[in-house]
Amino acid sequence: MSVFSVLAAAIAPGVALLAYFYLKDRYDTEPVHLVMKVFFFGVLLVFPVMVLQRAFVHGLGDNPFVFSFIISAGVEEFLKWFLIYFVIYKHTSFDEPYDGIVYAVAGSLGFATLENVFYALLNSASISSLLFRALLPVSGHAMFGVIMGYHLGKAKFNPGLTRRHLALSLMLPIFWHGVFDYVLATTKTYWIWFMIPLMAFLWVRSLRKVNRANATSPLRVVRSEEQVKI
Predict the structure, then answer these.
(1) Domain assignment of residue 181, yes or no
(2) Would 194 be classed as within a structural domain?
(3) What is the sign of the dihedral through the CA atoms of 73, 78, 79 and 84?
(4) CA–CA separation, 152 vs 24, rounded Å?
(5) 144: closest CA among 95, 113, 177?
(6) What pLDDT does 156 receive?
(7) CB-based contacts of 92: which residues, under 8 Å, 6+ apart?
(8) CA–CA dist 57, 71 (Å, integer)
(9) Is residue 229 in a domain?
(10) Element housing 86 (H / E)
(11) Mind telling me which residue stretches traverse the membrane in this protein (predicted)?
C-alpha cells in the first residue's frame, strides 16, 4: 500500500467515530472549530504520554496489571481528563450534558488517531490489521471518552453531585481502559472470547449514556416550547 493509503486507513476510523458522536447531539451541535481544537490537543497528548509511560516502565517495570491500569490507562486517561477539564469544562459552549461526551470523545479520538498512525507507519500495517485496530483500540478510546464525558456533564449540571461525578469521570475510564489492556496483555491466544463481550458491553453502555445525556439537556425543554409555539 502507498503511504497515502495507509494514512487514510489509519485516520478514517477516528474521524468517522467523532462524526458519529458529534451528530448524536440532538439539540445544539457544538462549534466545529472547537471540537477540532480539542481533537488536535488530543493528538498532541500522544507525545507527553510516550515520555511519561517510558519513564514509568523504567521505574515500575512491566507487570501486566501495573502496566495496564497505571502506566497505560492511568497516564492516558488522566491526561485526557486534564485536557477536557481545564480547556472545556468551564467554557461557555459546554452548555448541556451531552457536550461533555462530544468533547471527551474528540480528545480521546485525537489521541487514538495519532497512535493509530504511528502504528500503521512503524509496522507497515495491512488493511486487515488497521481494521482490527479500528474495531478495538480506536473504538475503545471512543468508549472511554463517552464514559468520561457523560460524568463530566453530570458534574457540571448537577451541582450537588459535582465532586462525585468528577471522580467518576476519571476513575471509570481508567478502570475500563485498564480492563481492556489487561485482557489483551494476559490472554494471548483466546483474547477474542473476552474482548467481544467486553466491547459489546461498552458500546451498549455508551449508547445508553448518549441517550441519557441528551434526555437531560436543558435545551430539550426550550426546543419543545418553541415547537408548541410554532
Answers:
(1) yes
(2) yes
(3) positive
(4) 17
(5) 177
(6) 94
(7) none
(8) 7
(9) no
(10) helix 73-87
(11) 6-23, 35-53, 65-88, 100-122, 134-153, 165-184, 190-207
Give me the domain span that covers residue 212: 3-224
Vertex 123 angle, CA 199 and 174, to 5°: 35
Percent of the chain with pLDDT strictly greater than 70? 89
pLDDT in tens, 186-204: 987 888 889 999 999 999 9
Which segment of 97-101, 173-177, 190-194 scores lowest on mean pLDDT?
Answer: 190-194
DSSP the chain: --HHHHHHHHHHHHHHHHHHHHHT--S-PPPHHHHHHHHHHHHHHHHHHHHHHHHHHHHH---HHHIIIIIIHHHHHHHHHHHHHHHTTT-TT--SHHHHHHHHHHHHHHHHHHHHHHHHHHTT--HHHHHHHIIIIIHHHHHHHHHHHHHHHHHHH-GGGHHHHHHHHHHHHHHHHHHHHHHHHH-TTTTHHHHHHHHHHHHHHHHHHHHHHHHT-HHHHHHHHHHHH-
* CA proximity to 111, closest of 23, 42, 54, 213: 42
Q: Which three cell numbers stand for residue 113?
A: 488517531
- Where residue 124 falls (left for φ over 0; alpha for ψ -120 to 50; beta otherwise) is left
Angle CA 143–144–147, to nearest 5 = 90
Distance CA(83)–CA(34), nearest Å, equals 13
Task: Say what the pTM is.
Answer: 0.90
Residue 187 lies in a domain: yes
Instruction: Band the pLDDT of 154: cuts 50, 70, 90.
Output: very high
